[in-house]
Structures are given as C-alpha cells and as structure tokens.
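Supplementary Note 2. Why include the ligand at all?

Several targets in our set were suspected to adopt different conformations when bound, so apo predictions alone were not considered sufficient. For every target with a known small-molecule partner we therefore ran a joint prediction. The input for LLP is given below.
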Amino acid sequence: MRAHEAGALHAEGYRGPTWLQLPHDVNALTPSLWAQNVGRSGDGVLQVAGVPVTDLAAKFGTPAYVVDEADFRWRAKEFAKTYDEIFGDLCGGADVYYAGKAFLCTEVARWIRDDGLNLDVCSGGELLTALRAGFPAERIAFHGNNKSTAELELALDAGVGRYVVDSFEEIARLAFAARERATVADVLVRVTVGVEAHTHEFIATAHEDQKFGFSLAGGDALEAVRRIVGLPSLRLLGLHSHIGSQIFDTAGFEVSAHRLVGLAAAVRDELGVAVTELDLGGGMGIAYTEGDDPISPKEMADLLRDIVTRECTAYGLALPRLAVEPGRAVVGQSMITVYEVGTVKKVDLGSGHARHYVSVDGGMSDNIRPALYHADYSARIACRVSDAEPILVRVAGKHCESGDIVVHAEYLPGDVAAGDLLAIPATGAYGWAMASNYNWIARPPVVAVRDGRARIIVRGETVDDLLARDAGVTPGRAAGSEGAAVQ
Ligand code: LLP
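The joint prediction is reproduced in token form.
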C-alpha cells in the first residue's frame, strides 16, 4: 500500500462550502433551523421553552438531545390539519402517518396518538413500542422489505391496520398467517415507481436498482396485486410509493403520483378492482443550514392535490384517499443536541486562512448522519453570546476516527473555548434513532421541555447498560431469552 502526504486535497484552499456565508451576527438563530420555542434570554443563554440550556446541561449532563414538545406537536398537528383541509372536500381528508423510524419512544407515540396522526412502523421493535404506548393498532401501517413471520404474527395478533407488502414472499407469509387466524389483512402494495429522487443515494428508494418494492416497469407490481386479489385472507386497499428522503425537488413526487394512478387504472381495467388508497410516502426535506430551502407542508399538499386530481381525472378514476408519511418534517426541527466543548485546535489552511477543530463530548455515536451521508448541520454557542470575530470551524466528536464530524463547516465566535456549550439545531430525525455505542460511548438522554418544565423521556445509558449484555460481567444474562425482542 502506498501512503501519500496529506495536503492540498484535504486542506489547502478550502474555505468552507459555497452556501456558507460569513454571518452578520454569529450569535443569531435563523428561525427556519430551530424549534419555535428556542431563543436567547436577556443574558444571551439559549433556552428551550423557557429552560436555559445551562440548567439542562447541569441537570441532565451533555450530550443531551432536547426536544421542544410544543414544537413537535404543533408540526404534527399542522400536518394532519393541512392535509385534512386540502383533501377534505375531494376524498374526505387525507391520512398522515408519522414515520416512527425518524424518532420513536412511547412518549412520542402518545403525542402522535393524541394529536390525531397515524403511525408508520417498520420493525417488531417499533411496533412493540407503539403498542406499549397504547397506540391504537388499527392506526398503524407496517412497513419493511423483509418482515419476518414473527413480526407479521405479532402485528396480526395486535390488529394492525395496514400492511405495506414489499415482496412475493411476504404476500404468501401474511396470507398464510392471516388465514390461520381466520382474519383478513388490509394491504397496500409498495411500488417501485422508477424515480431517481435527488438526494443522497443511500436514502433514495424508488429507482429500479435497489431492494424495496415491486417494480412497476417490470410488471411485478401488477402481479402482486393479482396475487393479493386472489387470496381471501388479504384485502387490497391501495398502492404505496416512497421515493426517498430529504427531498426538495417536487418533480419526483409528481412522477410517482402519475405512475401510481396509472397502475390504479390498470388494476381497475384488468381486475375490476378499485384502488381506494394512495400512499405517497414521506421524504419531505427540511432545513439543516441556511443553504437549505425546503417547501412547506402546505405547498407540498397543494401540489399533491393538483397532481392526483389531474391524473385521476385523466384516467376517469374516483380519487382514492391519500396518505403521506412524514418523519423528518415532523421531528427534525423540534430537537437540538447540546454538547460541551472539550478542545479547540487550529489548523493553518494557508493564505492566511485557518480552520478550528472544535471537539465536543459526543459525535458519530449520537449523530451518524454527517459521517454516513455527509449531511450538513449548523451550530451556535448556547451558553453565552460573544462579540468576538467569527472563525471557520469544524465541530468534531470524540470518536477514534477523523470522519467523526458533527458539523462540517460553520462560523462560531473566535473565542469559542473548552467549557462552552454548543447547540446543534434540527437533530430530531435519525439522530437518536441511529445512535450507536461506537467506541463504547453511552447514548445520551432525550429530554422533553414544555412550558418551563424539563423531563427525561428516554434516559441516557449508564456504564451498567454498557456492560449489561457482556457475558463476562453478568453471566446470567448471556443465555437469557426472557423479554427477547421480536425479529
Ligand atoms: N415512509 C417510508 C416507507 C420510509 O421508508 C421512510 C423513511 C419514511 C416514510 C420517512 O421519510 P422521511 O419523511 O423521514 O424522510 N436515515 C436517513 C433517512 C432514511 C429514511 C428511511 N425511510 C437519514 O438520516 O437521512
């Protein structure tokens, strides 16, 4: 293997991405990035719903995920209300399924339940969390490209409302398990509509060459419908497509809706069966930095209404009931992560430029997205304001690899130093949900704040948690099967 000298490629001439502008005020909070009840108090300390982050850090430690409960619930309710209003007179409203994979715990499941949304789960673990929270099973849709028999049986026994079937094997498994229980399962067919969504390739899901769904172009989607219609223990409700995640460009949704309606017409023409539900999935993008300019839920709903109405009219179809499955667009902005700075290192980039590596007490174990997708985030000093000149920083974690980045590029006050608290906005979606124990670091707590009161909704891990499954420490647990997860 040959080594090369690190140099130009990694450092020289780099002054941050083009979207990153030198801020007028390096303490300012751009409203599109932050939860609604996050602001600075008179002394400059960031507060969430009236609670200073300095108090939160003192009480719950750092890192900590902090969710603005009222903000989360406002976004969730706005989604439900917007879709109801926009589709109310057309097809009696539309269903909003919160995609639990973005962030789910029993408390969040209860918020979603009480605020009138449905829930999308994609594993036995998510399903059990929802059921444990008392979430009504009939308002749950079960997703996944490889649901096991045990998961399907758990869902059938609980009375889950919808199965978004993803493979021929699953159709057979579900039909068999439903028949054994003398019940009928309501299904939607996940269709691969052949759309290249403009997002990171790991989170684009409806182009042909990937694992999800039945291909429309290849004829598998129509064949799946044929099989379902022929099985008495399954009832076809509709068609489903999810084209990807963190999408800003509406063209993909337009093509997807067009193709799903075309398939609904083919189902009617060939099988004489009405498709009564159309689920267009999630994927609506949010702002992580000032460079992001997503469309609002209302703009999106208006657009979907126009497309679906136009396509159904063209095919002479009655408008099916519409559903969407936002995850990120509900929870993303509602949460921040609070870290404490431990070290600051200056790297000379040449030509008078420098980058400061600001290392915090978490990193890729509590937010893998920058390392996995090169996702960008923003940052602010949370414990004070400063009038020091801005400097270009890279916020790094404490893990043992150089790709352990929290924020690739940001400006912070030049006096940022060890002991400062940093807040990262918009960490609600797929942060906690994808957290790991890499480097054997305990996962942080999730703290919900509302009306000046903070409480833990998921406690942070302890050293005992880290060692609990280690057979050398607690031998009794190693072979234990009690309370095993459904997989
Ligand atoms: N519906 C289905 C069938 C999905 O697979 C997903 C996300 C959603 C809805 C919700 O998508 P959202 O509205 O949250 O974009 N870990 C990646 C995202 C993976 C998304 C997986 N499926 C990330 O951190 O960006």
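Residues 99, 101-102, 120, 143, 203, 242, 245-246, 281-284, 325-329, 369, 373, 429-430 surround LLP (CB under 6 Å). Confidence is low (pLDDT under 50) at residues 7-13. Comparable summaries for the other entries are listed in the accompanying table.
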